[in-house]
Amino acid sequence: MSKDPNTTFYWTRRETLRFAAATALGLSAGVPVLAGCSVGSQGSATNAGPPPSQPTGTLRVAHLGDPTSLDPSLAGNAVSLPIISHNVYESLLGFDGDTSNLVGVLAERWESSPDAREWTFHLREGITFHDGAPLTSSAVKKTFQYYKRSGTQWGVLLPPNATFDDTNPRVIRVSSPDSFPDMGRNATLIRMISPNLVDQGPDAVNKTPTGTGPFRFESYTTAKSLVLSANRQFRGPGPYLERLQFQIIPDASARVAALRSGSVDLVFNVAPSDAGTLKSAGNLAVTEKPLWRVGQLILFSNHRPVDNVVLRRALAHGIDKEAIIKSILRGVGKRQDNVLPEGVYGYQQPATQYPYDPNKARELLAQSGLTTPVELEAVWSPELGENIGRVEQAISGMLSEIGVNLKATQIPFAEVTKVIVDPQQKPYHAVAGELGWLTGGPLFFATKYFQRTSEFAAMNDLNNKMLTTPDGPERLRLLAEIQELFAQQLPVIPLYNSVQVDGHSTSVQGYSSPKDGFQPNFGQVYLSQ
């Protein structure tokens, strides 16, 4: 595939299916592959034994790029979150395994008022930050205020006009003029920063991350590596590793090659086409996990001609999602017909569906009043998903068979980010990518992500009601209505539920892919001897 940052591709549906047939999903080369959507570890097992009594060894992780920020109030992508989340920093709350049920982390218990306007978190005793500062309600308040400062990505996780009561050093109370029902889920993504570091300002927070997590920040060399070392004062269990070394390897093929050669121990998000060869190696293992992440085509619904809802429905009927999963994802994925992934709070499968039906797509296109072929351009960047370029190329080919010429164009990630923030800046019609619902709840409804990207104002009234309605039957009803509205109006065409495929040495024990796809916890990982 061309590395030209502004390259246009066209694949027909037949070429998409031929791609699967030519590779026989890997079998033509005698390579075993992953079938369907099985979950769990695959590869040679080892008799690992118990974890070490003291931190031992270095885990070398192939990382796809330099972090854009080490400031947790700004970090929000696959190059930043895996490093600092759960490893350097911790949150008040977390998730119970792979569910969206909440459990205490730095808070031992919590409660909210019936109207969800006041949230109270009771802090664990005896916890200190890496620099020795104690975890108190005042420290938590400083982190909250830091997140709420101007320009942060994650300030939206806290209520507008919130007040923070730190009168009791072991209790922090968050009060809001309006109901804020997602505070508990949002608290899983707010990382507690040392108050000493907060006092030094954003530059210091970005350069020397300091939290309460199982690992301390040690060093960062641009374009080379970032190193964390064991926090020996951590309350346990773990950490069991002496060091975590994130080796920066931007090229996906080079990351897999490094794993095969033994230069690294773990690679995130391996392409399904590589999973079979890794599994066949006696010293490597492959794990799969369905994620709270959706592969999708976001349509800029105020741009002509995709402002035509009949055209959007034609596009949905013209995309063969099963063929994409079979040929591009090598069977590792699940058809997705909802903007929300299953397992996230409020998930409800919409009644409106769009089965693959090219004849129906052509019929709708004729009803749209548009002149054919309809000319569209969709953009993508590799940072939005390992396979997203091939997915967009396949969609381009499928739509060409119904009378739509979709140019699938790769552009730099920085430009994609600008397009997402303000689609009016660029003459594109759509962007393809994968969206991870990090809080196990309606995060991107709360942040009004779709109003910005797809310019979908039709959801505003329902969304505003949902955001200020406490959890319960009424809120679930509102969420179901929003999901049905998305299905009917199609500002987004959901494609597949992502399954993360990670590869690692069989010496790596205790590792589990994170359900959100971005934030692994290495505190329980160790290397077998």
From TrEMBL:
It holds the Pfam family SBP_bac_5. It comes from the Bacteria. Gene3D superfamilies: Dipeptide-binding Protein, Domain 1 (3.90.76.10), Dipeptide-binding Protein, Domain 3 (3.10.105.10), Periplasmic binding protein-like II (3.40.190.10). Residues 102-418 form the Solute-binding protein family domain. GO terms for biological process: peptide transport. Residues 1-35 form the signal peptide. InterPro entries: Peptide/Ni-bd, SBP_5, SBP_5_dom, TAT_signal. The keyword Phosphoprotein does not apply. GO terms for cellular component: ATP-binding cassette (ABC) transporter complex; periplasmic space. One of its GO terms (molecular function) is peptide transmembrane transporter activity. Keywords: Signal. The keyword Cell membrane does not apply. This is Peptide/nickel transport system substrate-binding protein. The lineage of its organism: Bacteria, Bacillati, Actinomycetota, Actinomycetes, Pseudonocardiales.
